[in-house]
Amino acid sequence: MRVTIADVAREAGVSKTTVSRVLNTRADVDSHTAARVREVIASLGYVPSSGAVGLARGSSRTIGMLTPPLTWPWMGEVLQGVVDTVEAAGYGLLLFTCNRGVESVDHFTSQVSARAFDGLLVVEPENTLDTITAMHRRGLPVVLIDDRGHHPEFPSVATTNREGGAAAARHLRTAGRTRPLVITGRRHFGCVRDRLEGFVDVMPTPVGRIAEGDFTEISGRLAIERHLAQGTVFDSVFAHNDLSAAGALRALRDAGRTVPDDIAVVGFDDIPMARHTEPPLTTVRQPMRRMGETAADLLLSRLSGGAVPAEPVVLPTELVVRGSAPTR
Fold first, then answer.
1. Burial 25-36 (b: 16+ CB within 10 A, else e)
2. pLDDT tens, 256-285?
3. What φ, ψ does residue 59 adopt, rounded to 5°?
4. Is the Cβ–Cβ distance between 74 and 274 less than 8 Å?
5. Domains and CATH numbers, the chain
6. DSSP string, 206-243
7. How many angstroms separate the CA atoms of 144 and 155, rounded?
């Protein structure tokens, strides 16, 4: 059951107006009372709605955004899409990043009430979906960006990961490649399972040529080094993101293999770096800025009383052909 501002006021022994003033960090509440109210807010897990905050100053006109570390290679594009949309609507943005894992999440949850933002956009840090879902159930409007196959009970924006994997396989098959090596991300991510399933549906790949990575450059490099050392025969690589594809390119070059003549390489994401590898990277483009724009539009519509879709909004991926895997 949703915790209300009246519940907080009753538990703290103050008026709803006093609670609202604490939420807005007003100076006209004495420090002892404010501290007591904040303790009750934390103990009850209260999440303020824009209406509650409005008791003191109207809507906060502020959106919160919770993300993994901004070092994630595509976060900048997603964030720019959010900023462009939010600012155009006259809202501000409060950004919370999970640089320190659980400690960062605890810090974020302790500030939700004090920050009093109207709604939350989330690029899910690992192991936070339960916490975010609880906030949603208490009344905080939430939209998830890149749902990773989790399909939460609140609105989300995703891309066609399965079709993206299939497009990579069709391209390699058309180019005459028949023995791919696949470098995945971590298998517990739904997007990884979707990309792999889409690929192997088109080009069946034995387990011995599927290497689990972690979306880092070094995981791509180590996967290539390991399979070359084992004598694995492959004529192409499908890496589940551009960073691991870049690591694969480096390892192949160091081993004296020529790309694309000996081995073709395809990545996923189309981050800016993909245009500047040697050779430039063929990849499956995710519309990252559009994902941010779409999620922000969904949240703003929800805040204005509009309807939001019950099913995830799924945006299309697109194969971008460059020098690492040209069309023959």
1. eeeebeeebbeb
2. 999 999 999 999 999 999 999 999 999 999
3. -55, 140
4. no
5. 1-55 (1.10.260.40), 56-158+290-315 (3.40.50.2300), 161-287 (3.40.50.2300)
6. -GGGEEE--SSHHHHHHHHHHHHHHT---SEEEESSHH
7. 6
